[in-house]
Write a structure and sequence with these properties.
- The protein is elongated and about 50 Å long.
- By secondary structure, it is mainly alpha-helical.
- It has one domain.
- The longest helix has 30 residues.
């Protein structure tokens, strides 16, 4: 009995990344965009709250941690797409899926998890739960959109 094996190949004009790699790169790109928005709109979050999650201080630590979070969440996005067989769905669909994912990340992590975590580590300006902030919603939506488009282009 013969079986068919499909392999991925790379040529000079179209090099595709593995899903986890595309998710990592897309997550980093989205987090950089979101971090730039945060630096302009809510610098205290980037300089104080995000590094405080890990007992650190300062904008550089906040930027590095935020981009690292974006990379990890990008891999989770890729895993969800692979698990639901939505891997190569086109730029528009990738953008829409990323946008939805960014909003879900906001609703779970920024609105609920982050304020609880900040309270737990004793951050003096920990927001109340739920922490609903429009700037955060817009930033997470931008993160997701960039992630989804980058993923679709790279995977």
């Amino acid at each position: 009995m013969a079986s068919e094996v499909t392999t991925r190949t790379a040529d000079r004009t179209k090099t595709r990344l593995e899903p986890w790699q595309a998710g990592t790169v897309g997550g980093i790109a989205g987090a950089i965009v979101f971090s730039a928005m945060m630096a302009m709109q809510t610098p205290g979050v980037l300089e104080g709250a995000i590094p405080a999650l890990y007992g650190l201080e300062g904008g550089f630590a906040g930027m590095v941690l935020h981009v690292a979070h974006g990379a990890v969440l990008g891999v989770v996005f890729a895993a969800l797409l692979v698990a639901t067989d939505r891997r190569s769905s086109g730029i528009a669909t990738g953008g829409a899926l990323g946008l939805g994912y960014g909003i879900v990340v906001w609703a779970v992590l920024a609105v609920v998890v982050m304020p609880i975590w900040l309270s737990t580590v004793g951050f003096p300006m920990a927001p109340a739960v739920p922490n609903v902030a429009i700037e955060s919603l817009v930033g997470h939506a931008a993160y997701g959109l960039v992630l989804g488009v980058a993923y679709a282009l790279l995977e």
